[in-house]
Amino acid sequence: MKYCDTSKIVIERTNKDVVYNIITKKHYANTWTASSDIYAIYYDSGEHQFFSGKELKLIGCVIYGNPVGFRVIKSICDELTDKDVLELKRLWIEDGYGKNIESYCIAQTLKMLKKDSPQTKVVISYADPSVNHKGIIYRASNWLYQGNEIGAADAYMYRYPNTDNWLSDRAIGEQLGTNGLKGVLDKIPDMEYKKKLRKHRYIYFLCSKKEKKRLIKELKHPLCNYN
Length: 227
Fold this sequence. Notes:
two-stranded antiparallel sheet, 30% helix
């Protein structure tokens, strides 16, 4: 597949109503998530510019929000607080618009975040190996890698009886109010479960180069080479 024509990609800050159906129907998690900074990805076909100017087709979105739980933030660096950290929580872009479109859109929205969320110092994101994600798009947009051994407790994937799709512990937590194995089985005794593969963790610094250098020295978990 060829590279995307970036001159035809339009990214705009938007709201939940615009991209809700994309996330709940097309993203593998199939659930909405709490968010603070939402960006819609459009493709300008240019087919009818003579009549109406740009003709934009909604082809995806990138969604950022506060990480769930204070442990995530403090697992990066002790001095960071809620206002300092965002998580890239959802990314979905329709196929067929170029093999580099995801990394391009991530890079562009990170630039927009510097203006839209100037207090943010660090963005964190995960690649889930249970859905064959390794984080290639993060590597292509220069995120720093922290491996996949962070976090001591085992987590589980769940599948409702007589269904096909495995759901993440986070998705189950949003639905049932608990995602621990005992709590889930107390509510639904015949829920299927399997141990969850640990996610690859990536971080990206939005702060100044000087502060980035200082924070890297304070990281609780070392940076790793891509493998």
